[in-house]
Design brief:
The chain is mainly alpha-helical. The protein has helices at about 15-20, 40-80, 85-110, 115-140, 145-170, 175-190; strands spanning about 10, 25. Helix 3 (about 85-110) runs antiparallel to helix 4 and helix 5 (about 145-170) runs antiparallel to helix 6 (about 175-190). The radius of gyration is 29 Å and the shape is globular. It starts with 9 loop residues before the first strand and ends with a helix.
């Protein structure tokens, strides 16, 4: 008879126990797998662990890294006498963008530019709508209107530039250099 790997064939104990209400079962070796057997239960569990464990571990490390980044940035701002807004726009902004950079570069090198685009768009939408929204719900934000007048248009121009590049269908090296140059000009002009 054919059995599956997770079903144990059994035999009864000695002959005198066969008529008894209390039977002893002894596992027999598994015979062979059949095409009709369901997949191995353990392989499904292993695949689930291989999928979710790195993801959850990465999220945990990301939360811890974010906590250390914010604490360290606040200390830098206090020691150097720099505005927390400036530190937020530069050090924290760049630091929290590193996961997107790594993800997008790896996706592009792997031949999956859609993931790179989606990562950038999704991250920006989540930052503006979700993160800003949740933060304001938890603790209302007080921001100097002058900073918004300076940084708001820069944010809008960056979004328009990205939209134009995506609509063109290709973001090449030249466009990448122009974007990096625009960031450098923004930092020099504003600070």
């Amino acid at each position: 008879p054919t059995t599956c790997s997770f079903i144990l064939r059994t035999r009864f104990g000695p002959k005198d126990q066969r008529k008894s209400k209390h039977r002893t079962f002894y596992p027999l070796p598994i015979t062979h797998r059949d095409a009709h057997c369901p997949p191995d239960v353990n392989s499904g569990v292993n695949k689930m662990i291989e999928t979710w464990l790195p993801l959850l571990g990465g999220l945990l490390l990301l939360v811890l890294g974010g906590e250390f980044l914010v604490r360290g940035s606040v200390q830098v701002a206090e020691r150097l006498g720099i505005s927390p807004l400036v530190i937020g726009l530069t050090l924290v902004g760049f630091g929290t963008s590193m996961p997107e950079l790594v993800t997008s570069v790896r996706a592009a090198l792997s031949g999956a530019p859609g993931i790179a685009y989606g990562n950038i768009v999704g991250s920006n939408i989540a930052n503006i709508l979700l993160i800003l929204g949740l933060t304001a719900v938890i603790s209302p934000l007080l921001v100097d209107p002058k900073a918004l007048l300076r940084d708001g248009p820069a944010n809008a121009l960056a979004a328009l530039a990205f939209t134009g590049l995506v609509l063109s269908g290709l973001i090449g090296r030249e466009a990448g250099l122009v974007l990096i140059l625009a960031l450098a000009v923004y930092l020099v002009v504003t600070y």
